């Protein structure tokens, strides 16, 4: 018995079970409505119902109805069913539907790729992309773009380069939608020169393409953020006005360069054009930008006039004061946030613990740790680093336990552990930890190296 027959019989059993089970009110309503429809309208009714489902059980029952009414191989309904199953994470059912409806219709393939991408199943997008190539159905900008987007999400750079080759074969280099995504792929992986070549090949650039290139420059290294301002000047020569997204990218570039003059120009432009007012992301970017450019009064002013503060804006204020070496002010803002009944996220709590470590507030730091445990949140590497920093000042054994609890360590976490050993005059333990860091293939940063040298000096004296 082949797999197709097995799959068919499995579905029949599921249909029977569904019909024998209790009917939901939604499905009863559907059955009633369909009884008044002729066959030409039933397909449209089913499509309408598929657009409004919120639970997988009802979806399966509707699928059973579609099958019974003889629309099991309908491509239009099948693509909607496939995307609905993908949205609920039911990939086995989604693949079964896919195998029944698939044909040479490129728009159907694109619909499937988009559906999987929106549901967050990026690996499935790439599997179907390869299936599409094997069938020699052809490719267009949509399929290639969502293939590239999935590569970006998964960090599959070499696969993305292969998709770029496919686009070249189909002469899609002038497509803005595809081009902006390709710029994002190369810039994310530090290939800014390749991103520039893609940018130059696009003849009729739109706002999205320019914004992608600006974002790519601020993500780069070696002061390439300066080039972002050259791009925006070229954009304005083409009579394209920066959007909110463009301005946010420019703010991040200016923050990286600590260019206060450009920061103020961007802020002034946004006020004149009425961009970003009451926008959390834009206003939070402004706060972060002014702090990095050492203008805390302006950052506090923007924070003070925000119509609706969010956890993100509170986090920006707390983190900014921490970066400026002001843990007391940062912890005071955290206390204000809690007083106003905001629910902290893991970023908030990690920063609060860093404040407690700097101020040697053990009780308050343990309280934040206890809150994390009570809500059942998973400790990430930043929060673990903060806890190691806190406990190393009071109980090095507890700090070591926190350090050992995390399998995926980075140079910053090692640096904090090394500093903890030095604080407790355990130089030999610091040297052993530094050796383990090297053995793990983690490149030491300046802080780690200086701590290791201090440990060696302490042993020699």
From TrEMBL:
UniProt keyword annotation of Repeat present: yes
GO biological process, one term: RNA modification
PROSITE patterns from the UniProt entry: PPR
GO molecular function: RNA binding
Repeat positions for PPR: 206-242, 310-344, 410-444
Keyword line: Repeat
Protein name (database record): Pentatricopeptide repeat-containing protein
Organism: Quillaja saponaria
């Amino acid at each position: 018995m082949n797999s197709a027959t097995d799959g068919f019989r499995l579905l029949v059993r599921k249909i029977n079970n569904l019909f024998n089970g209790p009917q939901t009110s939604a499905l009863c309503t559907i059955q009633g409505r369909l009884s008044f429809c002729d066959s030409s309208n039933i397909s449209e009714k089913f499509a309408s119902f598929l657009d409004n489902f919120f639970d997988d059980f009802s979806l399966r029952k509707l699928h059973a109805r579609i099958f019974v009414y003889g629309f099991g191989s309908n491509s239009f309904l099948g693509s909607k069913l496939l995307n609905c199953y993908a949205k609920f994470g039911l990939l086995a059912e989604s693949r079964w539907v896919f195998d029944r409806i698939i044909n040479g219709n490129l728009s159907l393939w694109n619909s499937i790729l988009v559906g999987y991408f929106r549901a967050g199943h990026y690996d499935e997008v790439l599997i179907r992309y390869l299936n599409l190539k094997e069938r020699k159905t052809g490719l267009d900008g949509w399929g290639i773009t969502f293939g590239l987007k999935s590569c970006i999400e998964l960090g599959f750079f070499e696969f993305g380069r292969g998709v770029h080759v496919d686009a070249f074969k189909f002469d899609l280099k002038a497509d803005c939608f595809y081009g902006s995504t390709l710029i994002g792929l190369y810039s994310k992986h530090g290939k800014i020169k390749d991103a520039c070549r893609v940018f130059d090949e696009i003849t009729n650039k739109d706002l999205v393409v320019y914004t992608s290139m600006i974002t790519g420059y601020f993500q780069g290294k070696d002061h390439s953020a300066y080039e972002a301002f050259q791009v925006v000047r070229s954009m304005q020569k083409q009579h394209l006005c920066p959007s909110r997204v463009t301005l946010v990218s420019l703010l991040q570039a200016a923050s990286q360069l600590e260019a206060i003059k450009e920061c103020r120009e961007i802020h002034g432009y946004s006020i004149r054009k009425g961009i970003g007012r009451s926008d959390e992301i834009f206003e939070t970017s402004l706060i972060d930008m002014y702090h990095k450019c050492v203008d805390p009064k302006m950052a506090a002013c923007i924070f003070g006039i925000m119509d609706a503060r969010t956890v993100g804006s509170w986090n920006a204020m707390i983190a900014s004061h921490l970066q400026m070496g002001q843990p007391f002010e940062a912890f005071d803002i955290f206390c204000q946030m809690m007083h106003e009944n905001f629910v902290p996220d893991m970023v908030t709590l990690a920063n609060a613990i860093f404040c407690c470590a700097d101020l040697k507030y053990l009780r308050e730091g343990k309280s934040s740790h206890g809150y994390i445990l009570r809500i059942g949140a998973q400790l990430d590497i930043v929060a673990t680093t903060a806890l190691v920093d806190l406990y190393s000042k009071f109980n090095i054994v507890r700090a070591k336990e926190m350090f050992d609890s995390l399998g995926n360590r980075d140079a910053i976490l090692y640096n904090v552990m090394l500093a903890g050993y030095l604080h407790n005059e355990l130089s030999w333990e610091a040297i052993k930890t530094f050796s383990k860091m090297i053995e793990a293939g983690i490149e030491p940063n300046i802080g780690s190296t200086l701590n290791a040298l201090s440990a060696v000096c302490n042993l020699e004296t």
